[in-house]
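[Meeting: bench + compute handoff]

Bench side (C.D.) handed over the final construct sequence. Compute side (W.E.) agreed to return the predicted structure before the next meeting so the bench team could plan truncations. Sequence as handed over:
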Amino acid sequence: MKANWHGVYPALTTQFHEDESIDFAGTARHLEQMIASGIHGVILLGSVGENTALRHDEKLAVLREMKAVVGGRIPVLSGVAEITTRQAAEYAADCEKVGIDGLMVLPAMIYKADRREAIAHFRTVARASGLPIMVYNNPPSYFVDLTPDCFTELADETTLVAIKESSGDPRRITDLKNALGDRYILFSGVDDLVLECAMLGAAGWVSGLVNAFPDENRVLWEHCLAGRWAQALELYRWYTPLLHLDTKVKLVQYIKMCMAEVGLGSEKTRAPRLRVEGSEREEVLRVIRAAIATRPKL
């Protein structure tokens, strides 16, 4: 199976009203802003999209609404972050019925699977639909590490076409390339490692901070593609304090705070995520406002 996935894919936030109901209009407006900025695809209902805070029917409603907004202009993927393999497979099949373009599949939530169990999970979900899949490997957050040998074992699953590499070790890009060549499309999944991953051969970037700084994201990626490493490094150094926010436990709140500060959305989240307050809020706002005050001319 072939998928022409490349470039910057926002892990799009889901916007909420004050009563925690989904703000479909706000989410659609934000998605349009991202498309206008030049994104190459979008991932709905990933970790940043608060996947696990939504009911099954709410997720499908988001997919239907945002698929209509996109209108075929860019690929639309959905995060798959269910508690059990059976639920993940059922959700994958439902996504195919909605008619989106692909999936970004996480390990089963809560339970920490071993290698054999993790591989069985991804095989089962891979066979649950005909949709192409990006495998999301994020051991720091989800405690399951798919090492290059796991992807070698999974290489016979034709619907597994891409990897979002978020182990925090850029060496994985080289190891995957050496072991598997171009079998998988490789995406950088850690915002503050994107320059390193791009230099090592990542074809795309699943980003969180793009939700608030889409133009800077686009230009940074364009510098990387063109091999303008000096310009990329200069922009990356400005951007890095913001990109660090993507690696924190409260990345969703922090990214939505960035969006609110630049006028691109609300910082409202669903409980148990609450509004950041006190000294923590002051420190995050200091980082955001310092970046805005020194925002480079593009």
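W.E. noted at the follow-up: Strands lie at 7-10, 42-44, 76-80, 102-105, 133-137, 160-165, 185-188, 204-207. C.D. will use this when planning the next construct.
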